[in-house]
Structures are given as C-alpha cells and as structure tokens.
C-alpha cells in the first residue's frame, strides 16, 4: 500500500498495511482490505472522540481497534501505525524539533528501523505464528486481533533516518545491505553539500530488494530462514513477498530524515 500521512493538531501519524497475497488464490483482492483498513484509521484519527487521545498523544492501538471493527470486506493484512509530534514536514523530509520518543503499533512482519549515523540502532521485531505466517488482521475465523499488536516506543533525535517497509524489503535485504545503500547516498550528499534526498534513497532500496529477489543464488533473510526451516520454493516465496502488493513501490512505504 502507498505511503500516507495524517496531521492533527501538530501530531503526525504515518500508517501502512500490506495485504496477504494468498487471498489471490481465492480470487479475492486482499488489497481492498488493507486500503479500507487504512482509510478507517484516517477516520478514527480525524474523529473528535477524546478516547482516541491520551496525555496529548494519539492512542494508536485504539485507532487500530476502531479501524479493524469498521473494516468489513474480505481479506487480511498486516498493519503498522507510527506517531510523532512537533515535526516540521516538507515533502519527504522531516526535521525533529526536540529529542523525543517515537511511538508505534505494529502487527505482522511489516515494520520499521531507525538509522543513526548510517547504522541501524533499532528494528521493530516481526510477529509470526511460524515461518512465512505473519500475524494478520482480517474477518476470517483464524485472523488475529488488534489486541495482539505490539506497542513500541523508540527514542529518535535530529539526524536519524526512519525506514518503514513491508516484507518486500525486509525479506529481501539484510540490514548491512540496507545500511550500505543508505550510506552510499549519504556520502554523495556530504561531498556535494546537498540536501539529503530521501526519495532517492528509497528508490535505491527498492532496486536492491528487486535485484535480490530475482537472483536465485542470492542469500536473503527469507531464503536463510527457509533453509533453516527446510522449506521448498525459496525463490518463489521471496518473490511473492516482493510482488504481492501493487505497485512495486509500496514495498518501501516511507523514509524520513529527522
């Protein structure tokens, strides 16, 4: 799903969801579930219900619960909501006004990471019932509930880079590869004294994931896990994680320079 952002009273909320591709076998567009879920998140964020807020901050888990309750179409989806306040945003670039904590609610194997001085200092833990079976919201009997979502709080400061992505990136690129791709772009900008271009970094990460997914001899996080679990169709599986959402660029949802 494409990146999206909502602002309310100088509170910034980023949200993303990725449909579960196996619904395609039943000729059901699971992407519609993810899209409706995120639209309902927007409605909940913009509502005047004070219960959605706690101590001046958005109650992300309550937002997710309300959106889940109002999403009725067939399908299933992972979900990730991220919250920050006191940010000045200009297109892809955000500047952090004060040293603060970043709040998130995450369910499934999508997630985010924080890079500081080109090194990953935090990565959100994935939620899986077993290999290649992430937690997922949905209207079927075996779906997970918003109450299972992890509530996370991460310290961020000026100069940090935040990458939020689905498993299209996270299954196809190791952390050191992501660091290398980002540091390459940071190095180019330092030499030219230019403003960092998060969109260019995002494009590099998408290309990295695509290249790795189509290389049948390349070790990736997905293939390494599959080998440990002795699963078959390793390449088919990692291609599915990359191509299950459309368009391709939804696999990297956003990248912020704080």
Ordered list of secondary-structure elements with their pairings:
Layout: E1 4-8, E2 11-16, H1 30-46, E3 53-54, E4 57-58, H2 60-69, E5 76-77, E6 79-85, E7 87-90, E8 93-96, E9 100-107, E10 111-116, E11 119-123, E12 128-130, E13 133-134, E14 137-138, E15 150-156, E16 161-165, H3 167-170, H4 175-192, H5 198-214, H6 221-228, H7 234-243, E17 252-257
Antiparallel strand pairs: 1-2, 2-6, 3-4, 5-14, 6-9, 7-8, 9-15, 10-11, 10-16, 12-13, 16-17
Helix pairs in contact: 1-2, 4-5, 5-7, 6-7
CATH superfamily: PPM-type phosphatase domain
Please bin the fraction of helical residues.
25-40%
The CATH architecture can be given as: 4-Layer Sandwich
Q: What's the quaternary structure here?
A: single chain
Structure description:
There is one protein chain. With 258 residues, the protein is an alpha+beta fold. It has a single domain, classed as Phosphatase 2c, domain 1. Helix content is 33%, strand content 29%. The protein is built from seven helices and 17 strands. Strand 1 and strand 2 (11-16) form a beta hairpin. Helix 1 packs across helix 2, helix 4 packs antiparallel against helix 5 and helix 6 (221-228) packs across helix 7.
Q: What is the gist of this entry?
A:
This protein is α+β, with helices and mostly antiparallel strands and 258 residues long. It is 33% helix and 29% strand.
